[in-house]
Amino acid sequence: MRYRIYTLIAAGAFVLSVQSGCKKDFLDKTPFNQVTGDKAFVDAAGAEKLLRGVYDGMYNDYHIWDFMTNGDVISDNAYAGGDNQANIQLDLFTANSTNGNVGRDWGALYSDIKNCNEVLENVPNIQDPALDANGRRDQILGEAHGIRAYMYFNLVRLFGAAPLILKTPSNSTEMQAPRATVDDIYKQIISDLEFALAHTSTTAVNKGIFTKNVANALLAKVYATMETKDWAKVNQYADATIAGGYSLFPSFDGLFLEANKNNSESIWEMQYDGYGGQHGNWMPGVIMGSGWKRFNTPSNDLVRAYDNEKDEIRKKSSLVFRNVATEGWSDDYWTKANYPFINKYRADDKSNSYMIRLADIMLLKAEAVNELSGGGWAQAKTLVDQIRKRVNLAGTSAGNQAEMRLAIEKERRLELAFEGHRWFDLLRTGRAIEVMNAQTDGAGKNLNYNVTAAKLLFPTPQTEIDRNPNLK
């Protein structure tokens, strides 16, 4: 482990945060948005550098690893594993405002937002005809708006009400912004995504670029997550995404092979090329391997869910059991002679990770049509059965709206495990407290998470409360 120093922008102020980690290659590189003087802002090349700073800024702990901790470890899909107390606190619902992951994620998301704001503030003022050739200026602005929306979507789902920073603060008052309401944050998210939808490209050199179809997919997810859901909008934007030229990859297992990066099912995907390239993915090394106890251990409940469904294909693709009896550590949940590891990230430092893929959006559409009418469950069944057919499972037995809700929830869990979605699915469906408080270990003993409504959101980091008196 080596110390890594991050310069984080939280609510417009610079905050220094030191966090231990396992790899640092990408942090050794000079960020593209660190510029000297005004030179980088005067031509098209400067605009491209600013945008590259947005994408490069996403290769931080939040997007490399915490996305899974937040989406799967906090949920019923995985235990914290390892010996990191910050992860364990999140797993056990005992985290407070001093939790290291909480502060790291707040800072990382606001740092990414800051990078987007720099593009949106500077690129409109660049006087270079080359920037307007083929609408490139609009595309750059569209991508920055879309990525800012994605960061705020993550932020509001984790923290709830939070400062809404849309430009670089120019004075101390602006640097101590109060919380915006959840509704106002969602309004800004939708506004940014609508701008992105109107200005981004339909295609890109790889699935790491923010495109119109990413905007459509995120709009579907946003309208399904807001407190007042708009299922008609979810259906509209899910349809628009599905019509974007995607198809289910024939092999579920093949989704996670290095040879199939940026495949027909991928909508938005983090791009890793190893430590010999520009971006290496250190996450696989902390969830799989020997010599020390790895993090994010698959849960007994998830394994039971695969077994109860007789879902062997997705079980074997998603997790693998190994004999680690000779390892010098202990575990509260599993026997070491048959210990589970996550299996979706097999290319080590070159493993891409999906942010959005087609199966996610198809199942989201299934939710929408099921909610739009009492008879919509039949149309939802068609979509669910397409997902199940790929892994050689019979069609769902759900026969009414209520049964279909649970069938879709289960299908999303088995399909998308360890891709960072489960906890947010439980939150948006209002099922988090019920599901988590019913969790048992391998022997059927209740895990006593004692989840309450007050524990469903991350606390605001104490460092931010100390710095900003408006964060009551």
Automatic annotation (TrEMBL):
GO terms for cellular component: cell outer membrane. Keywords: Cell outer membrane, Membrane, Signal. Its main location: membrane. Residues 336-472 form the RagB/SusD domain. The keyword Translocase does not apply. CDD domains: SusD. Residues 25-223 form the SusD-like N-terminal domain. It is found in: Cell outer membrane. The keyword Amino-acid biosynthesis does not apply. It comes from the Bacteria. Belongs to the SusD family. This is Membrane protein. It comes from Pedobacter antarcticus 4BY. The lineage of its organism: Bacteria, Pseudomonadati, Bacteroidota, Sphingobacteriia, Sphingobacteriales.
